[in-house]
Amino acid sequence: MHPVLFRLAGHSIGSAELLYLVAVLIAAGYATRAFQREGWDADAVIPGILLTAAAALLGARLHGLLIHRGLSFFGGLGLGALAALGYFRARGLPVARAADAVAPIAPLLYAVARLGCFLNGDDYGPPTSMPWGISFPQGHPPTLERVHPTPLYEMALMLPVFLWLRARKRARLSAGSVAFELCMLMGAERFVVEFWRVGVPGPAGLTAPQWLALGLFAIGGLGRAGLLSRLRAA
Asked: Is 233 contained in some domain?
């Protein structure tokens, strides 16, 4: 666990902040190549990335305040996605195709962010006797018990999601298909991992993040079903 990676000019550089910057740089590189492949103006990428990154951070902080956490995945995802889609429309890009073009990188960006959570010692799960359990004596909050390292679980799950979405992008599906499948897979992943994360059960014994995950899955499922229905009707 390394919440502070190094110090620069007397300022602490945290792992979470540095990895968020790394994720932004990865997103910029991937989106630039995706825009070039589609024949779109690659100069539009950097303003869009900065807008989306700022919106995602704002959304994560605002929702985190509402639920009394540091940062919220769903808040960041929601506001960041709205900012990206709005930017695509403002630039006159085909929104569904643009969303598909950048969707495959989202799982890797999320994995980088979860690495930041792991190094920061937060968002871990309940105690476990499994051999891969980890204690976080300087975590947020600290624990001397060995607990489920749920950020590592999510990082492991994001690789197959990334590979699947890349393959689906190459399959030349209906515009919007890859983005909707991203919603389904991210929703399913978060729903499952929440069983190994500390949370307060609500209706039907599910936590609030699990209900949000189901909502994300439903958005993806309904959108994908709508595209298939439209394809069959054509």
From this structure: no
